[in-house]
TrEMBL record:
Species name: Patagioenas fasciata monilis
Assembly information from the UniProt record: Muscle myosin is a hexameric protein that consists of 2 heavy chain subunits (MHC), 2 alkali light chain subunits (MLC) and 2 regulatory light chain subunits (MLC-2).
Gene Ontology annotations for the cellular component aspect, listed alphabetically: myofibril; myosin filament; myosin II complex
Subcellular localization, as worded in the UniProt entry: Cytoplasm, Myofibril
Protein name as it appears in the record: Myosin tail domain-containing protein
Amino acid sequence: MASLEHEEGKILRLQLELNQVKSEIDRKIAEKDEEIDQLKRNHLRIVESMQSTLDAEIRSRNEALRLKKKMEGDLNEIEIQLSHANRVAAEAQKNLRNTQGVLKDTQIHLDDALRTQEDLKEQVAMVERRANLLQAEIEELRAALEQTESSSIPRTPA
C-alpha cells in the first residue's frame, strides 16, 4: 500500500506542479493578451492619426486644385484683357499716327496760307504806295491843269 500512497503522492505533486504551471501559463497568457490589447490600442491611435493626416492632405490637395483652376481662369481672363488692351493700344497708335499726319498737313497748309497772306500784305502795301503815288500825280496833274486853264482863259475885267 505504501507504494500506492507513494504513487498517489507523486500524482498529487504532479497535479500541484501541473496546476502551478497552468497558473503560470494563464498568467503569461493574460500578460500577453494585455500587451496585444495595448498594441492594438496603439496601432489604432496610429491608424486614426494617419487617417486624419491623410484626410487633411486630401482636403489640402483638393483646395490646391480648386485654387489652381481659379488661378488658371483668372490668368485666362487677364490674357484676354491684355489682348484687348493691346488691340486698343495699337488702334490708338494708328489713330495717333493718322492725327499726326493730318496735323502735319494742316500745319503745311497753315504755313502756306501765312506765306500767301504775307505776300498779299506786301502786294497790298505796294498797291497802296502806287495808289498814293498815282493820287499824288493826279493831284499834281489837276493842279497843273488848273494852272494851265487859268493862264489860258483870258481874264475879263470886272
